[in-house]
Amino acid sequence: MHERGKLFLVPAPLDFGCDTAVPIAEVLPEGTLVAAARLDHWICENAKSARHVLKRIGELHALAAPLQQQHIVELPREVHKKGDHTAGFDARPLLAPAMEGHDVGLLSEAGMPAVADPGASVVRAAHALGLQVVPLVGPVSLLLALAASGLNGQNFAFVGYLPQEQVPRGQRIRELEALALRTGQTQLFIETPYRNLALWDALLQNLRPTTRVAVSSGLTLPQAASRCDTVQRWRDALAPVGGKTPAVFALGA
Amino acid sequence: MHERGKLFLVPAPLDFGCDTAVPIAEVLPEGTLVAAARLDHWICENAKSARHVLKRIGELHALAAPLQQQHIVELPREVHKKGDHTAGFDARPLLAPAMEGHDVGLLSEAGMPAVADPGASVVRAAHALGLQVVPLVGPVSLLLALAASGLNGQNFAFVGYLPQEQVPRGQRIRELEALALRTGQTQLFIETPYRNLALWDALLQNLRPTTRVAVSSGLTLPQAASRCDTVQRWRDALAPVGGKTPAVFALGA
Predict the structure, then answer these.
(1) Counting C-beta atoms within 10 Å of the first and last residue's C-beta, which end of chain B has fewer, N or C?
(2) Are residues A32 and A53 in the same domain?
(3) So what's the ipTM on this one?
């Protein structure tokens, strides 16, 4: 009987889809680069972008196998769309190589897999199969944004995307504000970059003047910016987001 | 007039207070090490442990000033005890060096400052003074634990410490479970290591058999372990925590 492989959770740089590339050693520690270079079985969000990350790692550490010989499988589309927790996807078959003794890497397009990104179904399947799960250190935009906000970091929530339509979005914003003011819990959320400005306008329209809003955009990139101020003061300022750079939003007391 | 300095949020390794030390380059990327080595003004949780982290960084990159000549100030005790958000502490005077043009580092004893740790008051003061805030990449135990849990990573909350007394602790556990089951939001929390086992017992006593509980202990250390299972199965297993190693707990559907 083979010894089983482990599932490594491999974070990716945050420059996916951005104009500027960050040198990968700036944001991934040596321990993560070495562990990732050793792997040649991958489960990923997108095979093309996984190969691109592997290529960048390979420029610093010899890969266990050439790019063309890496075993890379993609998570199915329904997991991308619905999320791991509503798609009812059984990821155990994807972990067959680990059951045969191969270490397997889980990789998303940016940041930590399974956090605000697909992959939790794979981690769950690994636990069900009794496989060891090893999360590796790397950039996580949500936590960088939280730390840089100055909002309460002892009690916080990430709630994903807000509704796109105006009325339910406004309702959701006021609901999150009420929760933050009542409990002191910082509320973090994200948006697809091209909707950043619409979300920003909705925040300024719906929140109370004294509520604090923080935005981090382009985290780890040269143009990175993190700011936090009251809604009142934001109303007199330029929007701190554009339509191209990924941003993380937070509100709190 | 001087150009103002920036506030850098510098993450520390997660081995604080542990028997084993992790090589610092394993968990802090080159970009973080270089940025930290350039600084000689610090605001920290504890000056002694800050010097210890700087010594470890200095073994890899020449420090801007010898350890004895680093300017290190500690956050006041009341911020440690009550948390930045209830102590009503005005941290602006601590940032005087930044107003005079010095870059300043914020450092906690383990992990990311201002996340489940003191420091948010300093970040808030930096925003009030119009200083640039730069969060650097490093290990964040909460997010490593969340990713390794396989629980919902699209919607999650960190709620800090649970009450220590049996009755309110049981109530809080059932309240968090009800919230997680109703909304799908994973609930993360921590405990002082010597109370880990008492918390574990309370979780198994108070949660429903089908609820999932995840524990990550000793993250980034050689003995790191991340597991997740239902309460029912945990009741037949050994406790996955001891009384010495820091652990992060999570529960979800």
Answers:
(1) N
(2) yes
(3) 0.96
